[in-house]
Amino acid sequence: MVPQPREELFTVLVVDDHPLLREAIAGRLRSMGAGTVHEAASVTEARARAHAAGPCDLAILDLTLPDGSGLDLVSELRSLGWNRLVVLASSDDPYAVRSAFQAGAQAYLLKSASPSVVTDGVKRVLDGGVYADPTVAPLLATGSRVPGTDNTPRELSAREVEVLQLVADGQSNKEIGEALNLSALTVKSHLSRIGRKLGTGDRAQMVALAMRAGVIR
């Protein structure tokens, strides 16, 4: 039998100035279904590839590049219609992580992460989700502040963070209540307060805002 060509699931741009790391990332992405993998070693090369190829399904970028900031590149690609941006960096500094999400990234992974963590993060982003490396997620959760609709930081209580994390995990109000030993009415009350603080009553938007701010994983 003639083997059938493998279906191309997604296209990707990998931006890093270390050739061996780029090759390793590209290989893992191909094993996950990536067909066309564009590579760039600098901001300049990435811009050229981006303009030539148009938005890919995914981009994986380092923050420290020889000719500029990866954060600026994240913002630029986002403005050009790239909707799935993953930062793969060396720094586990919470400020760097928050800055990446604020610039428009959907995931922050560490170069020291295991292949399974990288795969999980990429899959989450390809599915339209947001992901923070498990190593940095606890550091982010210590600062439970999210931007309010009036540009004033709003503080979420520890209990509200717990409730929102369970919402992000896909649990219903009843399941959240059982997990936290709360009534369904109390869970609903917590979600109402969270909604007021975040300026939205939509569960998906609540989760997205909190993930972007690094409050939940």
UniProtKB/TrEMBL annotation:
The modification 4-aspartylphosphate is found at residue 62. Residues 149-214 form the HTH luxR-type domain. Signal peptide: none annotated. Residues 11-126 form the Response regulatory domain. It comes from the Bacteria. Keywords: DNA-binding, Phosphoprotein. It holds the Pfam family GerE. SMART domains: HTH_LUXR, REC. This is Response regulator transcription factor.
